[in-house]
Amino acid sequence: MALPTLDLTLQFGDVQNAARHKAALPRAFVTRCIRNALAHDAEITVRIVDAEEGQSLNRSYRKKDYATNVLTFDYMQSPMVMADLVLCAPVVAREAKEQGKSLQDHYAHLLIHGALHAQGYDHETSEKDAIEMETLEMLIMAELGLPCPY
How far apart, in Å, are the Cα atoms of 88 and each of 15, 53, 66, 71, 96? Predict the structure, then answer.
């Protein structure tokens, strides 16, 4: 079965150690991660931001005054997925180090996580929904030959 098509825009804000994050996120890798998480064709923008921009967006849209690892802004889920995924580089780097993961593996997990959110999955609604989403994340990571994120 063919994977859905993906029209990807990849943006890097003014982040410290930008070369490290760009090296962990080659366009083909980002595309592969997201496409494997999609059930439908998609137009997705992925933006890598610093802590200030991440915190500002999280405060504005979720009323939470801190930078989080990934924010998903979904605009349409069917028949085409349209979304923005915003990943906060310093948070992702810190979490990867704390969890003993490579930066690229942690980015892969968060790209998949964000793509699932863009399709209506939500781990915060119930334990059943959280288990469903986490199971999908593990399956997709395994399909990509990447380690279990949990």
Answer: 9, 8, 11, 9, 12
Q: Can you state the percent helix, strand and coil of the chain, rounding each to 5?
A: 50, 20, 30
Report pTM: 0.96
| Residues 51/91, Cβ–Cβ less than 8 Å | yes
CB 82 within 8 A of CB 42: yes
What is the structure's pLDDT at 7?
98
pLDDT for 76 equals 81
Q: What are phi and psi of 6, to 5 degrees?
A: -140, 125
- Asked if 64 contacts 58 with a C-beta cutoff of 8 angstroms, the reply is yes
Contact between residue 69 and residue 95 where contact means Cβ atoms under 8 Å apart: yes
Mean pLDDT of 47-68: 97
Residue type, 92: V
Q: What letter does residue 41 receive in the DSSP assignment?
A: -
> What average pLDDT is seen over the chain?
96
